[in-house]
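Here is the promised in-class demo. Please do not try to memorize the tokens; focus on the logic of going from shape to residues.
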């Protein structure tokens, strides 16, 4: 099969591993930089061009679209969908998962466990907003933040008020979220492919830090997850409509709580910690499921 990998940088670990996995399985991979792509949106013959050349119709597309280029990246992916290519993750599903408010509302509607969460742009009553999250300590997040950037732990009511007021001054959309103390600064990244959790790691924050993101210096280790955690991760990915997802869970006294569903989960941390060939599993999923014009909007909302 001809497989396009939408990535800004062919040297990134995840991109390299996907290229290797495609080649090992006998496919023809091509890395396409979405920002260097441009489109002819014609109903008779939609095309994608790079440097004056029309790209072929690929059998499958593996989107590795960064959060900062979501709008244009999903537009390019939609174009490939119009051309009949099978998307590993559909453009609608990626857009849905990137919108923190929309994604949590969808998960809530389907009864998925989450930390108590409040959303606001310019709240008239900060006290009430803090109360929504169960009081302090609480976590305040910018909706547009990624990889732990724009996430603040407010340990006192006064600190929470100050941070919320500061974000309000920037006209930023924020969410306040219950701090799950029993998680101990750790979360679980479940890597979902299809209807299975194929690998899982525990991400532990550094001492004095509450953010467990590997980009923030968190440490990854192998972990055995429970059947409930496994089922929760798969359900969350399906609600988003994602075939491949990194679902981040917190262990709480009331069961697993979903923090986020990532549509372009990195491979380095999960493959290094588990020793599993996740890139190969992704390509095998494509082999079993890729058919022309198979794009469909799955999930609701």
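The designed amino acids, position by position:
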């Amino acid at each position: 099969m001809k497989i396009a990998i939408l990535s800004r940088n062919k040297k990134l670990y995840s991109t390299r591993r996907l290229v290797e996995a495609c080649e090992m399985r006998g496919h023809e991979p091509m890395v396409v930089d979405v920002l260097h792509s441009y489109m002819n949106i014609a109903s008779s013959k939609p095309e994608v061009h790079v440097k004056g050349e029309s790209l072929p119709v690929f059998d499958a597309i593996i989107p590795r679209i960064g959060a900062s280029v979501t709008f244009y990246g999903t537009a390019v992916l939609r174009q490939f969908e119009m051309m009949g290519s099978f998307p590993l993750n559909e453009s609608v599903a990626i857009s849905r998962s990137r919108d923190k408010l929309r994604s949590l509302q969808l998960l809530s509607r389907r009864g998925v466990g989450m930390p108590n969460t409040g959303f606001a742009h310019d709240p008239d009553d900060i006290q009430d907003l803090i109360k929504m999250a169960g009081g302090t300590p609480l976590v305040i997040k910018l909706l547009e933040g990624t990889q732990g950037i724009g996430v603040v732990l407010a340990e006192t009511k006064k600190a929470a008020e100050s941070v919320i007021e500061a974000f309000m001054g920037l006209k930023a959309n924020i969410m306040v979220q219950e701090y799950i103390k029993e998680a101990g600064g750790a979360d679980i990244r479940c890597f979902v492919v299809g209807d299975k959790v194929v690998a899982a790691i525990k991400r532990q924050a550094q001492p004095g830090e509450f953010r467990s993101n590997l980009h923030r210096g968190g440490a990854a280790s192998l972990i055995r997850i429970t059947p409930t955690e496994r089922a929760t991760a798969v359900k969350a990915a399906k609600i988003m409509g994602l075939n491949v997802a990194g679902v981040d869970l917190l262990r709480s006294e009331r069961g697993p709580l979903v923090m986020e569903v990532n549509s372009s989960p990195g491979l380095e941390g999960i493959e290094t910690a588990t020793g599993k060939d996740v890139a190969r599993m992704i390509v095998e999923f494509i082999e079993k499921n890729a058919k022309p014009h198979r794009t469909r909007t799955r999930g609701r909302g």
